[in-house]
Amino acid sequence: MSPVRQHLWTALRGVLLALAAAGALGACAMPEPWVKPYERERLADPLMKFQRDALSAKHLEHVHEVREGARGGTGVQGGGCGCN
Amino acid sequence: MAATDRCRRAVRSTQLALLALAERRDGAGGLPFLATARLLGALGGLMATGHAHAAELPEDRADLMLHSFDGGGVEAWGPALLVRKNLLNKVSLFGTYYADIVSNASIDVVTTASPYRETRHEYGLGADYAVRESLLTFAASRSTEPDYIATAFNVDVATDTFSGMTTVGLGYTYGSDDVGKVGEGFFDNAKHWRYRLGVSQILTPRWLANANFEVVSDDGYLGSPYRMALVFGAAVPERMPRTRTSRTVQLRLIGEVVPGWSVRGEYRYFWDTWEISAHTFGLGAAHRIGEKWLVDAYARSYRQEGALFYSDNATSETQYVTRNRQLSTYNSLTFGTKVTYELMRVPGRYELFLNGALEYWKTDYSDFTDLRSGSLYSYNATVAQVFVTLLF
Description:
The complex is a heterodimer of chains A (about 80) and B (about 400). Chain A has about 80 residues and is mostly helical. In chain A, about 45% of the residues lie in helices and about 0% in strands.
């Protein structure tokens, strides 16, 4: 193995070892998912949606955005709103 | 898999990889890539903290809506349409159309210009693509009106992780606008870049939290060629900066408190390089009545601090000056309701809903004078929507 490849391999090995060590510690500390898929029935109910209808939400977002200084951050996809 | 088992397996994988690396250093043979692959495999196992959770495409649907806005001398109404269809359980194509037929006699218009009518059309096309735990969205839209054309492209990715308890979303929008003036044609442009990051987290079987962060940057003509500012009482064309960057953080929480009732709350903070800052608070509740009715009610409070260069009537000459009340200091209180009624249901085939939404708000300005009366300006507005939804 050439000296350059040897250096590269040594550096890569160091990085991988550090990542592996950090990952192993992280795995030991990582909590188990505490809400099982079969417990999520209530969350699928339309009552539990922040926005039930995309078209309705987009219209209300547009109506507010063209009249307010603030914009964005609502999770609704941006678009050409012709706001100015 | 219990956490301890997963931990033990991860440590064992790491030990095997370390052993392979040690063998490689002693020149005992074996490909370094094998050791690398083992380490990466171990890392992958550590990062996968549960079973795979395939992303789901949005359900097929069609919405046909009639919307209206009436407030502050502005009337706008029009139809809107959304159609979404799933193909081969891999791709969901969607198209939208939205029209705003505007009759504008707002306070700005009646004090410095003439009332006008115009129509805005917006078309959108897009596709959602489900791949393993992720949903990729590509979309484009184009909005046209006589003196403004806006084109935008979106790319979004949402990934389920932590056994589907957490969804992480990233999004990017690029927008390019042509800015014009009636009688003069298009004379300038503006570009917009939006970067979104969102996380949704299942907290309990009945509570869900969501956090969003968005950065928006603009470059170009960001004002209105029709709007006038007041400097020493004289009307002059507004002078706006050509760049702006804003940041927005939103936190939301929703939960089912008793069967058939959900409550939600939200807070949003906005700030930008024009020194505008805004707080938005929202509270809402939804209730199912029988099997066919869903009723929603909410309140929203919005408070804004105005831009550094906003002035009701400037008393000094500055590089930038505007009297755009959208950039002034004001507060607004909104009450809204939405009702959904199930018209028809054929299990496994389709469901048809009739929806109605009504929003009322009042806005009070702290430093925007109604030049007709000399008092601070305020206005009320009503937003209405009627739409049918077909799920199929």
